[in-house]
């Protein structure tokens, strides 16, 4: 093979090499952009899940107030809380499908201070933790009076 | 071979190999990107369905038509999948045909109450499914009215002298109240599993449902189940197999059993605390056995392999009595049971 041909092939290989290097750099950049997009999407999804869990808790017939089967929004019946706590603990697997890795607590602020933890399923190596606080009315069916409290939902995700 | 000829040949082989490598490289990228994009679309649809499922648990009596990317969505017992990408749910209550086709998704929710709300039932279908309702009573009219406006629903009060033509729908579902109809011969060319029917004995509160499927040019009975309340009839309208209907109803009864245990504990506490008001204490005492009865029958129905009509009747009776007692509690200004 003549020297000229060898140089030509060498040039072609060099051009191809640079071409592939540029493509690899392009792909690395593209992959990084995609990765950051995925991270943002993952975070959005975690937040959405957190809001979803908060909504689910608010509308659970296990704790919700009702008057002749008419649901009262943002209201929790305190007489249901203790047994809801026991039943949700006993049926942890069932409620995991609804509430996933989260911790659901209710804090009564007025007329007296009290708290109930109705569901707790935690993961040790979580990456994100979202806390949603929802102001709620706490209904006491015995006195038929409404108190005031906060529903705190902590959701954990990897 | 001369040195010049060898050089030219070598050049061509080199160009061929390099070109093939470049082409292969880009082909691989395109194929990979296509599969990533397809998986991403499927995941987006699944995410949309997940959002509907979450939304359904917090809204009742909602009806909506969603635009989705065109896809074949398979729905089974606790499972939603799109061409291999699937999501499992442990206690999903989703009444839908086995296959949803098209770029639109119709969904609606209703509360499942016996007599207090235990959960929401979610129904989903494709506007390409054809529903043919046959019957002549108030319940039929109620069911017809409750279905979303955008669905292909045909309502006949009397089936005699009516010709059901094949309108190229991928699924046809007959909902027959009263006596079962003969198989419409115009649909005999459709695949067997795409033409299904239910036959309901008209009683608004409870009753039996027969599930039929086309077999060549006649109906074949696939099995019998039961319903309680209008919401479960609507569930049977949307679900095209007995197994899926049964699985969803079992999940609904399981939730009812759990909610009933909480209602029972609540009432026991209420009864112990409000013992001074005689009327209320008496009312609560009368309600407690009914709650226990609802709890035991709903647990039984959640675990049994068949929804026995006798259990459904007992549950409906206890539910009706509890509803009357709740009215009584209201009359005496007692705290309501639910």
Describe the structure.
The complex is a heterodimer of chains A (158) and B (338). Chain A is rod-shaped and about 105 Å long. Chain A has helices at residues 3-58, 78-90, 92-99; strands spanning 64-67, 70-77, 102-110, 114-120, 128-140, 145-157. By secondary structure, chain A is α+β, with helices and mostly antiparallel strands. With 338 residues, chain B is of the alpha/beta class. Chain B has a domain at 250-331. Chain B contains 6 helices and 12 strands. Chain B has helices at 3-58, 138-146, 230-238, 242-273, 278-303, 309-331; strands spanning 63-76, 79-82, 85-88, 94-95, 99-113, 117-125, 129-134, 152-156, 171-177, 195-200, 206-215, 218-228. In chain B, α4 runs antiparallel to α5 (278-303) and α5 runs antiparallel to α6 (309-331). The radius of gyration of chain B is 28 Å and the shape is elongated. The model of chain B has no long low-confidence stretch (mean pLDDT 91). The chains are: A alpha+beta (158), B alpha/beta (338).
Secondary structure blueprint with pairings:
The complex is a heterodimer of chains A (158) and B (338).
Chain A: H1 3-58, E1 64-67, E2 70-77, H2 78-90, H3 92-99, E3 102-110, E4 114-120, E5 128-140, E6 145-157
Parallel strand pairs in A: 2-5
Antiparallel strand pairs in A: 1-2, 3-4, 3-6, 5-6
Helix pairs in contact in A: 2-3
Chain B: H1 3-58, E1 63-76, E2 79-82, E3 85-88, E4 94-95, E5 99-113, E6 117-125, E7 129-134, H2 138-146, E8 152-156, E9 171-177, E10 195-200, E11 206-215, E12 218-228, H3 230-238, H4 242-273, H5 278-303, H6 309-331
Parallel strand pairs in B: 4-6, 7-8, 7-9, 9-10
Antiparallel strand pairs in B: 1-2, 1-5, 2-3, 5-6, 10-11, 11-12
Helix pairs in contact in B: 4-5, 5-6
